[in-house]
Structures are given as C-alpha cells and as structure tokens.
Amino acid sequence: MSFLPEGMTRRHFMSHLAGASAMVAPSLMMGNAIQANAQELKKQGKSCIMLWMGGGPSTMDLWDLKPGMNTGGPFRPISTKGDMQISEHLPKVAQVMDELSIVRSMSTREADHGRGRYYMHTGYVPNPNIEHPSYGSVIAHEMATERSDLEIPPFVSVGGGSVGPGFLGMSWAPFTVSSNGQVRNLGGLKNWGNDTLTSRLGMLQMIESGFVSQNRGPAAVDHAKILDKTVKLMKSEQMKAFRVNEEPEQMKELYGNDSFGRGCLLARRLVEAGVPFVEVDLGGWDNHQNIFTTLSDNKLPVLDRAMSALVTDLKQRGLLESTTIVWMGEFSRTPRINGNTGRDHWARSWSTVVGGGGIKGGLAIGETSSDGTAVETEPYSSEDLMATVIRAMGISLDTTFTSKSGRPMKIANGGKLIKDLIA
Amino acid sequence: MLRWQLSPVTLIPTFLGMVCVLTSGAFATAADYGIPQVATINEKIRQGWEDYGISPSPEEMDTVWARRLFLDVLGRVPSVDELSEFSRDRSRDKKKNLVDRLLFDEKYTEEYARNWTTVWTNVLIGRNGGTANNSQISRAGMQKYLRDTFARNTHYDKMVEELVSATGANTPGMPGFNGAVNFYMDKLDEDGVQATAKTAQIFLGLQVQCTQCHNHPFNEWKQEKFWNMNAFFRQTRAMRGQMPGNANNGMRAMTLNNVDFMGEGRNIDNAEIYYELRNGLLKVAYPEFLDGQKIPTSGRISQVNRRDELAKFIVGSDNLQEAIVNRYWGHFLGYGFTKPVDDMGPHNRPTHPELLTYLGQELRENSFDLKQLIRWITLSEAYSLSSKITKGNALDDPTVGEPPKFSHFYLRQMQAEQLYESLLIATQAHKTRGNYEEQEKKKSEWMQQFVTAFGTDEGDEATTFNGTIPQALMMFNGDLVMDAVSTKPGSFIYTMAAEGQDGKEAINHLYMATIARRPTRKEVDAANYLIGIHKGDTAKALQDVFWALLNSNEFILNH
Q1: pTM for this one?
Q2: CB of A166 within 8 Å of any CB in chain B?
C-alpha cells in the first residue's frame, strides 16, 4: 500500500517527501560540528545595537543645549569625557562620551511618527509602491553568509516593533521579543521528541511543496524559509542568550531594573552570541506637554543608566570595537516651548548619537543656530547616517539590492558618509 | 521547487488572452447573478485586464472560494458541515445563495457582528486601545456598540453619524452608556488633534496628520483646513464618570460631553481658535468643512452643536462613500484601489477611479447598506479567481509596487483574530465556549502576544503576526494548537478516532476542516504511511496530519 520501500527509515521518508526542497533536511542534520567554528567567526563579525527612542526625543534637551535662549528650556549643560557638553540629566553617559559622537546637524523632513519612523529606519521616504528594508534587515542580510553558524534570528527587536524587511522578504523580518528575553512557545520539542517532529515536518513539507509549486508568489515561498529557521531555533543551544534574567544581580542593577535597562543588557548578550543587529526600544518621547519634568524625572535617568552601562560593559568585554551603537528617534521636538510646557514635532534641526565599532568617539559633528531652529553646517540626512553606520560595519556602500520589481536600490539610499566619524 | 512549469493549465489563459486581443470582448461573460453592480464591477475590472493585455487566472474551486468568503465575512474558516451543505447546492446560484446565507440568515447574525466588530474595533481604537489599566477607553464598550450596530445592520452613514456626534458614558453598566464615545475618548488631548486626524483618515480617506504643523508637501490639504476641521471638536470634553454603586470593574469610567466653548479669544459668540504657522505667527480658525461649508461661530451648545454639524457634513460628503468602498474592497481583495486604503487624493491615484466612484454612488443610492456592498464585491469575478499566478498575469504583482489589477486572488496572511476563530472552528472547540464577554477577553489576551506599541501619543502599533518566527512558534507549540491536536478523551481527534471512522475518511475530514479541499493522492499516501509508523494508532497519525495542516501555508493564508 505504501509508496515507500520496505524498511525505509524515517529520515529517508523525510528526504523522499522533501523532494528538491531544502526545508527539512538541513534542520534535521543540525550537529555540533558547525558550532565549533562559532568562536572563530564571531571575532571577525561586527554587530550593531540601535537604541530607538519612539516618539521623537527633544535632542535640544539632551545633546545640543541652548542655555539662556528662550527656546533652551531649564536644563544645564555639563562637561563630558569627550569634546562636547550634554544635558545635566545624563551624567553617566557624559562619562562615556569619549566612545560616542553626536551628530548635531541632522536635518530631515518627516515630522509625522509613522513616516519619520520609516524614513529613519530605512533611509527612504515612505512610498506606497514599494517597501524598503530597515537597518536590521539590511545588516542581517549582508552579514548572513559570515554568520552561517548563527541559529538565532540575525535581527532581534527588543520591546518594540521596528520596521520590517520590505522587499528583502519576511525571512529578514525582526524577531520581536520582550525586554526580559522571553521567547514564547519555544518549548514544544521537550513534549514530543524528535520522531514526532520528523513525522510532522515531513507531512508539512509535502503539503507545502504542493502549494508553492502552484506559483502563488513570494509569500508562499518565504514561509518555507521561516519554518526552517523556526525549527533551527527550537533546537538551538544558542537560545540561552535570551535568558537575560540569569545575569548577576549586580549587572542587572548597573543597567537598571526597568525594561529598557533589561533590554540593553539582553542586547549585549545577543551581540556576544553573534547576533549582528539588535534594536532596543525606549518609547514615550512624544512630549507635547510637561516635557521637562517627564525628561528629568523619568526618561533621562532610565536612558542615562542603561546607555552608559551598555557602553561600559561592551568595552570591558572587548566588544565595543566591533559593536556600532546608534541612538536616534524619528525626529526631534520644536525649539519653541508650547503652551502646555511641551514641545511639538520638529525635524529640521536635530541630533543623533553614534559610536563604538568603526566610529570615532568623543566628537560633536555640526552645529545648529544659537536658538536651535536651523542647522548651520553641512546638514545630514537619515541616509547619510545609515551609510555611515553601514560602512562602520564593514559593509560596502556599493552594495545594491534589486527590488522585486527589478529596480536597483542602493544600500542606505546612496547616502553620503559623515566622514569625520569614520575611524 | 519554483521552476516555472509549462502545463496545459497555464496555457489556457494565455490562449484566452490572445483571443481577447484579436476580437475584443470575446470573453465569456462572467456570472453576474442578475445584479447590475456585479456586472459593472466585472466589466470595469475586465477593462483593466484588456488595457494591460493580461488574462485572469482560472476560477478557484468552489470550496476554496467558500473558505475565502467565510474568512472575509465571518472571520473564520467554514466547518466541514458548512462546506458539505454548500457542495450539495447544485444550482447556478450556489455562490449567491451562500453569500446571502452568511449575510442574511439569522444563524450567522452573531458571527457576522463579531467579525465586523473585531475589524472596526481595530480601525477605530487599534489593537491596543483600552487594553492598558488606566486607559480612558472601554474596549468592551466600543465592542458592544459595534456589535449592536452590525447585528442590526445599522447603515454606514448612521453609524458614522453616531460615532462622530457621540456623547454619554463609555462603560457598559454606566447610566447613559453609549459605547460609541470610546472612539474619541483618548483622542482629545492637545485640543483634539488626534480626533481631527483620525476622523479625516478613517471616514474621509484623507491623511492630514502632517498638516497639523505645516502645509502638506504633496496633497491638497493645507494647515488651515486641518485647524478649521479641528474647531469642530472644541466643545467636546472627556470627563471622569461613575459606575453605579461601588462597582468599577477595574475600568476607568469616563463620559464624553458637549460643553460650551468660550473660544481662545474669550468671546463665546464668536468662538475662534488659534494655530501656529511654521514661522511662529498665530492664525485664527473657525469650524469649516473641507469643501468650504461653514457653520455659525457661536461656542454655545444651545445654539450650535459643532460635532453634530460635522457629522452632517461628513455624511453628505462624497469622500465618505469612496473611503468606505475603498476600505471594503481592500478587505476582500487584499488591496484597495489606493495603497494605503485611507490615504486618498490627487497625490495617490486610485487604480480603478471610475469603478470607485460608481460603487460609492451605488452605496449611497442603496442607503449605505454595507451588506449590499459586500454582496457586490464577493460575487464579482475578481473575487472568484484562483490565487495561482499564470503566465498571462504574472505582471499583475502588487508586491513589487505594480498597481493591482485583480487578475488573480492576492495571497494574504490571516489576521490573528481570524486564525484564532478558525482554530476553534477547525477543532470544534467553539462548541464549549463561555459567554461573549469571556470569549472576547480570552481572544484579546491571546492577541496581545502579537501586538507592539510604538511609544507615541498617537498610540501607533504594529502586529508581529505576519508570518514570521513568533507566529511559526505559536503554530508549532502554542496552547491553541496543542489543544487543537490533543488526543485526550473528548477532543476532536479522540472523537474521530473513537467513532471508528477509517483513516481515509478522517483524513479527508481534516483536510476539509482546515484547507477546504481533499488531499491529493500523494498526500493520502503520506498520511497512510504515518498511520503505518504509528502501528495503527490512528489518533496519533491524525494528530500529526492535523498539526501539519494547521502549520501549512494553505491554512494560515487566505488564498
């Protein structure tokens, strides 16, 4: 009755069903041999951690203070270990500013949250006809061959949504986890064991290949890749990296016992495990009212502790020179303080912060006018910043993607390097 | 695996396409069921194919079409019984009969209302709206309003009027409860900027949020229009409310009231507002609709109720009918006439402008009865086509930015809510569900694992339920799927195995329950092989087959 020869093993059954597809076979042959090389490859590999400030932080109150001006707000500047001054409410970050640089001459046009988030994540303005890949997807895609040993998804987004892979396809999508590193629904294998998994995946493969071969488009094809990655991940020892709560208490306190602090600590663990791109989300910067108390009592202490801890910790572990750090939001806030003691959306003159691997620290690049309303030196855009980070990671700026429609797309939208930052 | 296979199936449409070029109009007329709106949709969509020289995919098999319909209209896959009933209908009108059954049979009223409540709750207050402890929104209140609306088939113009002009208490059980108030409840901060932006976006298909601060770089909206529209919301206040007795149900009870507005110039008879230009100058604004219609400038409620007036303007606007047609077309066909569906205007030309205008007018003519709109769309030829891409229409690929031409059905991920309801149906777990509120609470808790908020005042959010690893993990190992494939006494599989159905019948059943088709010969052989290795333990084999089906593309996609 069976179409299988007598005595055929399960694995033969699988590969028989699998046909030409690569979905099941590799995931079943997961051995330790590949992992032996992991240490070696990781040394060469660079990583990037993006600290994403959802809502648009007022960079005039953090990185580019205008004391004494009517736009300046109440915060005082303090000296740093680098060659610049920053807000008094970031004292710990001030002590590591020799590793980080401020780009004070960011000038963009997108002052809507959705559009700004997209633009700052991709280097492209939103376009209804095409979806562009975000930092994490681009970097993960470019680092993929080098990290063939990596079983954790190469783009992890901690506590936030990030922006997706666009035309690169769902297999480069962010793997979103909460800041405590909890990965839901990971535990099935314990319950059913390998034989069951083998049978089920074999059957699934049979159904999938039938559907995909009927030419239903890229979404159907991507699913097979996702399933393969999911199986790998379920079996992987590397998933230990997510167990951030196993860190010593002292370390957890250093980063701060809040979700952003935990998220940054998780980012360090993931980078240590070889993940090329981690985004950590800190929202709540959309301060249209009561901005100064919100910043001084809540947002800045959280940011100060975690960001300084991250830089220090990476440095002590020898990871800072291979880990590029980017701090940014979708835009900044109006120099003018509104009637609710808040600031509204402003993209024309603002700051981002970069540092770590491949980036010179301790510098303040560019200047804004004395009241902060205009950039007075060469303005930089999202694509310029992205190009600079991409380059710092050792990825060629000549890289060009082909969108699904066959249109060539330059990496980082052909942005120009912020040359002073290149180490 | 993906190599193009030249088969007779793929040649047929190409051949038809050639005939079409030679003798224009030689297509066989698609069924229109005697409904003029369906005939017009078919004609206009075909015109698009002819203009681009593409040919449609063949018609999808009936049961798979029915699965689509159930997913889009009721938010779940059909049960095996429902599919059998449909298959038994041998009449020419079997599709129309099914559409009418889902829309008009009392048996489906509750499910219809549940599905559209889910859809509209997400549109109006987002997947996160009202889920935080201290939220001003009562999600339950919003849902109760919508459920009543869709169960009664309140026509769309009335629904919009009720939402825009709503006053009352937000939480069920409060005196003066009106769940509709929850739409605006959290949108009144900063002088109602969000109320303005969301009203324009959702009901008029206009994205105006950028014009709050400056003239829009590429659409017609000017900053002045934004604030003219915003002036309609200045009599509206959200206030803390009281639950009767000591009950608070953990909710933050609120009411939405209209109160006199003094005007920022402190002259109630001419209650103006001010807004700031980019150069810092202040300008004055009064309530004025986008087409220039004005109302008296008094801020006294007894003289002018600004939101009531706004509701009338919106209901009278052509934008209303086209925005809702676009939204519903997008819901059923996977892409609207514009992308996104709620950003319309000269900067974003619709793919089928005449059809959009026509359907908008027809909807207004038909008293904004959304069930009629659903009938026209679901009975159209475009909705009946296979999702298999053929050589004749490979160019019609909206995923690469091509304007959609609807020559084949576009694959799409099931929404998380659809998957949840479908899993219950496929496993018959819905038969033992609690009351409505408990069910919705459970679903909402489950949903939260896929929702991330963006940390802005606008409450932007994203769902990670999109075919990526978290979703795959959930389908591999999650509670719902574990329960679904359970072999414990009383479970779906246990019952099937215990009822002595032989393997073949049970496997057919599983295929119909999940992907609405019979297994292929190869798939039957594979399933039998599994029964073999489980040494005749049918339940175990069925469990594996069921698990594989639930995890397949064919199940998690609407195709």
Answers
A1: 0.88
A2: no
